[in-house]
Amino acid sequence: MPELVITVARFGFLILLWIFVFTVVGVIRRDLFAGARSGRLVAAPRGVGAVLGQGGKPARVKRGKAAHQLVVTAGQLAGTRITLGEAQITIGRAEDSTLVITDDYASARHARLVPRDGQWFVEDLGSTNGTYLDRAKVTGPTPVPLGVPIRIGRTSLELRP
Amino acid sequence: MTAAATSTSPPTSRGGQSGVRLARSRRNAELSLLLLAMVLVAAYGAMVEASVLDTVTPSFWVPAAALSAVFLGLHVAIRFLAPFADPALLPAVALLNGLGVGFLHRLDLARATPSERAELATFAGTGGRQLAWTLISVALAAGLLAVVRDHRSISRYAYTLGLAGIVLVMIPAVLPPSISEINGAKLWIRVGGLSIQPGEFAKLALLAFFAYYLVRKREVLSLASRRFLGVDFPRGRDLGPVVVVWLISLLVLVFEKDLGTSLLYFGMFVATLYIATERVSWLLIGLVLFFGGAYLAYVLGDMIGGPFANFYLRANIWLDPFADPYNNGYQLVQGLLALGSGGMFGAGPGAGQPLKLPEVQNDFIFAGLGEEIGLFGLSALLVVYLLIVERGLRAALAVHDSFGKLLAGGLAFTLGLQVFVIVGGISGLIPLTGQTTPFLSAGGSSLMANWLLIAILLRISDAARRPVTGGGSPSARPTGGPPEQLHGAPTEVIRP
Questions:
Q1: What is the four-CA torsion angle of B81, B85, B88, B90, rounded to 10 degrees?
Q2: What is the ipTM, given to two decimal places?
Q3: Which of A 68-127 lie inside 8 A of B, CB atoms?
Q4: What is the pLDDT, as a whole number, of residue B359?
């Protein structure tokens, strides 16, 4: 074998090795740099609960100041945002909740947020330690104004436009 | 060398309507990457023959083709069994495994006399045996994917697996040295010509148990604490399990004379504990305990010798390998010289002198490879390991259940730690220990256990990337329902 061929093959192999590495990086690039979105600890809003208790009628936004986001303002998940759709949001420690919170004072299925005609209602699902809207304990479905904290254990959530 | 172009073919998009961002299976991207990896393996084989035999034989492609066939088989199995699994895992592992087989085959060529070389059959020698083990391991991995359709079902057997893990760890320690000891470390079971390293499998079993245990206990471990120097430390009674595992790993160190395995078990536990509780204090406690234990073993080895003598010797070789370069430090010194003579770009595949390295097919395969592909090539291999670990951690982040998170995170960390322990040992960063280099080293146990590890990661990444609203998904459970029933639901759900 001529020396030149061996040398070219030697460097060619090393370059091909790195081409492989960068091709793998290229394939997973979207995941690598989208950490903030895909690394989120919450599930995407499920379509299953969308029609629950709505009579099949989709919630419509009527007023200008409608809630579009649910933001966790305190607790372990602080900073997490969920874009609100027409599906209900369940909150609790159970893995199938929309917002899985790892709060020690939260129940498996703690509370849920249900949209009705563009207004979101918070409802306690019989939790052990209760759900509070600002300072008041939530007993039945209660409308949630924008920017008022919903407290579950050490976690606080707010609706934002 | 034009294969790179094929890898840019657009990946498939499935389930695009579901609205979930990662709802693409990307199996075609995996196939392209796999083919590129196999082209690399074939090119490596050809270059080895060109250097060692001075000619490329017409059958140089046979090992690469056999590997391609079995990896393609696994790829097809993944298409059916785990269609949303991570596309980067299989090609990356296939590349490492293929280069491992290629390097072992290269050692066979170097050992054989010129007349024997022509007749070196595909499945003969260390390279051939490794090829056969690869076939078996990949078949096992596909089998695991077929049997375990949902990773949460592993948690059902957590206590059985934990017990099995401890038994597997302990077997070599209690067996007589004639059966279990190779090169001063009691890690093997030798039956006939076959040597099994049960610790490799114990790693997986113990990790499944750790994950299950910590999911059950993490509330207590992360809640109750005392604050000291700005760090939350757990209560004394909650330290129980970590102390027990620390003792087990010290026993491994003393009775099996293997620092690497002991470090691996302990690191594995501390890492899963950290993932479960998000408490930095566990890392601090773990590091202090391990370094304290290792230092104690060193001092004891100096003073009383006995079971600690082996560790004392290894630590001294590490501190000054050139103190006794022809005897005790021979292996490490030869490894360092090989890496040094490899330099930046290496001597070229097949052009080095790996046979000067003792145990080059096991512990020192990275040094042997380094002599031939240089720092440039070795760092590419390390990045491939890094990417495998990254994909595992990514699966852990994305999967929804706590058990899956802990299992995937722990498995990925363990793989990374093992690479660190052996590569650190070879390069003189930490005392050298008898760990195998995952997917590269000769050895059926290691290869099998690591392929099973990858199969579990594939399974979890499939669950993590599967579109949530996809019909027929095993993870889709009905939500909602009457609140009265929900109220009675258990607080921590580990579904079988």
A1: -30
A2: 0.82
A3: 76, 88, 90, 93-96, 100, 104, 107-109, 123, 125-126
A4: 81
